[in-house]
Specification:
Layout (H helix, E strand, L loop, with lengths): L3 E8 L2 E8 L2 E7 L10 E10 L4 E5 L4 E4 L10 E6 L9 E4 L4 E2 L3 E4 L4 E4 L6 H14 L5 E4 L8 H20 L7 E4 L4 H8 L5 E3 L4 H4 L2 H8 L3 E4 L2 E7 L4 E6 L6 H22 L3 E6 L5 H16 L5 E6 L5 E5 L12
Parallel strand pairs: 1-14, 6-8, 11-12, 17-18
Antiparallel strand pairs: 1-2, 2-3, 4-5, 4-7, 4-13, 5-6, 7-8, 9-10, 10-12, 15-16, 16-17, 18-20, 19-20
Helix pairs in contact: 1-2, 6-7
Length: 340
């Protein structure tokens, strides 16, 4: 199968979406019906400050949330918050008080006025066209960002997104006060996320059973295994409670040249391996033994690979023991539990 394909189906009875490049699974979204979806907006009630961490615990309709920056907040105060990821092992749901309203073409940012266009759009004529669309359709105290997907999109479609997100922002903000916690919007599920983030680049398949027919299920099964085959050896990706451990091996050839090739291949493959498994948090990579002179080359390859990845990842650097450390946002639930 050549080209890019989006497959919308179900996995073990829950909604799922797969993104294929030339038949190879490149991204996977699996719903979690037991937790608030990232992007969901709540009216939370401030509960208690965490003085040592500077955060605030909030009450939600079902469970608790953790806001990292709680300065100036008081217990009992209502606060609009947005879910930023999944809670780990029964912990509080991570949230932010910087809510935004995101669709395929437009992002509306309350409290941050001004209109901007994605820097990924470089064509001057296209920028002028989008500025005209903003001028004709946006008159709000909110902020607005037109996304890179606007390039070449129809003016009416973009305008509809602008109006829909502005109206939604107004409705949610008007419901921000109250004495009890309340769910105000739900986060997008895998099918809506695929439409929002992936469409425009691929053919879309929605037939029931497409995961099986297109070989997606077999590729999902492979994710359950820690081993990832790379061109010059293998890489093992194993989550623990505290961190994700990655081990790179060269196989039978232990020469410096083989080590460098394996490490470069692992650096290129790592974002996809983490993305498909839904892994985040602290990542520690034990590369195959190499000279310090080769470390810079491997680090450059890592930076280039993660630059194209949609999930926010910070490359911390080398530890004194020669391990490479990363911090990755937990935007997704690990897929291991969803695999048949």
């Amino acid at each position: 199968m050549k080209g890019r394909t989006i497959v919308l189906d179900h996995l073990n009875g829950v909604e799922a979406a797969a993104y294929l490049i030339d038949g190879q699974l490149d991204d996977l979204l699996v719903d979690d019906e037991n937790a608030p979806r990232p992007g969901a907006i709540f009216r939370g009630i401030c509960d208690r400050p965490l003085k040592g961490q500077g955060g605030m615990m909030l009450r939600l309709p079902e469970g608790t949330a953790f806001l990292r920056h709680g300065k100036g907040l008081r217990p009992g105060q209502p606060l609009l918050v947005q879910v930023t990821g999944y809670a780990d092992g029964g912990k509080a749901v991570p949230v932010t008080d910087r809510v935004l309203f995101k669709s395929r073409y437009a992002i509306v940012t309350p409290g941050k006025p001004g209109a901007n266009i994605s820097r990924q759009i470089a064509d001057d004529d296209e920028i002028d066209r989008l500025r005209l669309i903003i001028h004709e359709n946006f008159d709000s105290d909110h902020g607005l960002i037109l996304r890179s997907s606007c390039a070449g999109a129809g003016a009416e479609e973009i305008a509809d997104d602008i109006h829909a997100m502005c109206n939604l922002a107004d409705a949610v903000l008007a419901d921000g006060d109250g004495a009890s916690p309340e769910a105000l919007t739900d986060g997008d599920g895998p099918h809506l996320l695929a439409w929002r983030e992936w469409t425009g680049r691929a053919e879309i398949v929605t037939d029931a059973g497409s995961f099986d027919a297109l070989g997606v299920l077999d590729q999902i099964d492979a994710i359950a295994q820690p081993q990832v085959r790379i061109a010059e050896g293998s890489m093992f990706v194993e989550p623990t409670r505290a961190l994700v451990a990655v081990d790179v091996n060269t196989g039978g050839d232990t020469s410096p040249a083989a080590a460098l090739k394996a490490n470069l291949a692992a650096a290129r493959a790592l974002p996809r391996a983490l993305r498909l498994r839904g892994l985040g948090g602290q990542i520690t990579v034990d590369f195959a033994p190499m000279s310090k002179a080769h470390r810079k080359q491997v680090e450059q390859s890592l930076r280039a690979a993660f630059r194209a990845d949609p999930i926010e990842t910070s490359l911390v650097g080398w530890s004194p023991m020669g391990l490479f450390e990363l911090q990755r946002k937990r935007e997704r639930r690990p897929t291991r539990g969803a695999i048949r």
